[in-house]
Design brief:
Blueprint (H helix, E strand, L loop, with lengths): L1 H10 L1 H16 L4 E4 L3 E6 L3 H46 L15 E2 L3 E2 L2 H25 L4 E9 L2 E8 L1 H5 L3 H35 L2 E11 L5 H5 L9 E2 L2 E2 L3 H9 L6 E5 L4 E5 L1 E2 L7 E2 L2 E10 L6 H30 L8 H14 L1 H32 L2
Antiparallel strand pairs: 1-2, 2-5, 3-4, 5-6, 7-14, 8-9, 8-10, 10-11, 12-13
Helix pairs in contact: 3-4, 3-6, 3-11, 4-6, 4-9, 6-9, 6-10, 10-11
Length: 397
């Protein structure tokens, strides 16, 4: 028991220290905290208000225009993420092999299909995302001459974030399009940040990194389950795969091209630097008639080219490797948080946008009733997406 606790502490030491620092900070500032709904803690301050004012005074008209573009993008995102959430839940219920497309992305936790999010990537990305998201709300609000009273830090259970607090009475008196643009600004800015991150990753840093390496094969981190070919053949996670039958393959894409010409039940040989493993291909559970290996979390592996094996070039390569890893997670987190905030839930921007729309469509009283019903429905759908796979596992379904 004691060893398990020590192992847990060592594994998540940075996360534990981070939350200890947050707890100490909130304890010191306890007289200035505002508690809402018992689990929401707000710490208000004036950080960044002068920057918002200077930015708006210089770029008021472009900001208003971009805010209006964000309204269209926001409603497209709201419809898209709502559909995906409902569809994913339906798939989980009717397809036993379906994997949840919704997951809490936390540092140190293995996210299916994405790997483990490093703590420093997480803290830097969350800081950037929260700062850009909330300042976007404030900047668009001030562009419409709506007072921004405070900025601050919010703690919702274990989730830390930031907020900008516009004058709600003045916001509600604005035209619908102005309200939509303020509410959609945060998520729209996160989606734009995700686009910038993926462009930098794919067109600058990854190409630079790839010029310094040569492929050596691919590895995988886990089996789908123990009944599929790789597990039965005894090919362990982390094994470097370098070919199939008589063909040498240096990337998983090359391996897949060869695998495409096979059928379930065919016998093949999987090559590694140590030995060849004979196995019989299974049928894909998602694509009947297609061959299936039964592995997941696949990575192409590389090694530095000989001319770059010097201390200076190795330092350059590992710097690029850190940046590409960070940009990948920044893209995932920024896009995910941006879309999550567009859900029609009472606690996020999409819910507020839905509220304004329903008040206009149905009147304030009836609109508010519909808004609460829709919000509760999607809250239930979200929770089922998160916890249904766990419940299904407990029940052995």
């Amino acid at each position: 028991m004691f060893e398990s606790i020590v192992t847990f502490i060592l594994k998540f030491k940075y996360i534990i220290l981070f939350y200890l620092a947050i707890i100490i900070f909130f304890y010191i500032k306890r007289k200035q905290l505002d508690f809402q709904a018992k689990i929401i803690v707000l710490y208000r301050m004036k950080f960044g208000l002068r920057f918002i004012e200077k930015f708006v005074n210089k770029f008021r008209e472009p900001t208003i225009l971009l805010g209006y573009i964000g309204v269209g993008a926001g409603y497209v995102g709201l419809i898209f993420i709502s559909y995906i959430l409902v569809k994913n839940l339906v798939d989980l219920v009717i397809k036993p092999s379906a994997v949840s497309g919704v997951s809490l992305v936390l540092p140190g936790v293995n996210v299916p299909g994405l790997g483990v999010l490093p703590f420093w990537y997480w803290i830097l990305a969350i800081f950037m995302i929260a700062l850009i998201h909330e300042f976007a709300h404030g900047i668009v609000a001030r562009a419409h001459k709506i007072e921004v009273k405070n900025t601050g830090i919010v703690l919702l259970g274990p989730i830390i974030g930031a907020f900008v607090e516009p004058n709600e009475n003045k916001l509600r008196k604005q035209s619908d399009i102005a309200q939509y643009s303020v509410l959609a600004a945060g998520s729209f800015s996160n989606i734009l940040l995700a686009i910038v991150a993926i462009l930098l990753l794919n067109f600058l840093f990854m190409p630079l990194q790839q010029t310094m390496v040569e492929p050596t094969g691919f590895t995988f981190d886990a089996y789908v389950n123990e009944e599929y070919p790789f597990a039965k053949a005894g090919i362990l996670p982390g094994t470097l795969i370098t070919g199939i039958d008589s063909s040498t393959t240096f990337k998983f894409e090359e391996f897949s091209e060869k695998l495409f010409c096979t059928n379930p039940g065919d016998k093949i040989s999987v090559n590694t630097p140590q030995k060849k493993y004979p196995l019989v291909l299974a049928e894909s559970p998602d694509n009947p008639g297609k061959s299936f290996l039964g592995i997941q979390e696949i990575h192409n592996e590389f090694e530095l080219k000989e001319k770059f094996k010097t201390p200076a070039w190795e330092a350059t390569y590992y710097s690029l490797d850190w940046i590409t890893g960070f940009l990948k997670w920044l893209f995932i987190l920024s896009l995910g948080i941006g879309l999550f905030n567009l859900l029609p839930l009472p606690i996020v921007d999409g819910g507020r946008m839905m509220q304004v729309f329903l008040h206009k469509l149905r009147g304030e009283e009836n609109g508010e009733k519909w808004y609460r019903k829709i919000g509760m429905f999607f809250l239930l759908v979200l929770l089922l997406n998160l916890f249904y796979p766990m419940i299904r596992g407990w029940l052995g379904i």
